[in-house]
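Write out structure tokens for Response regulatory domain-containing protein.
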Amino acid sequence: MDTNDYIEVLYVEDRPEDAELTIRSLKEHNLVNRIKLIEDGQEALDYLFGEGKYKGHKPELPKLLLLDLKLPKVSGLEVLERIRSDEKFKHLPVVVLTSSNEHVDIEKAYKLGANSYIVKPVEFTNFAKAIKQVGLYWLVLNRAPK
């Protein structure tokens, strides 16, 4: 595989302001070099499974999937359920990064195989700090099987 195809983080988020802040925070803290932003759940599935406009493209698994829940076309929970049903994604760390603090969403995300569930802080500074902590843990400290 061409190393240019390798991404460290696959980020699925439909709110441009949240996406911009998250990406900026990860890059400012030198936690990620290559990040791919996808804006809806169906495109995320297409990307991961090499379907739709990504047919024939087999990306290397990212080190981390940041996944919003409230997505157009296919919800984050549906994305999570589909990827966890496939053996090749068994060890892919999935961090749900969402505005939903609903108990039912938290329970379902963990039941479907999320590794972490983070409610996006509303305040800018707290949001940036939370992203830094997520990046430090999942991209620097955590060791995943090969």
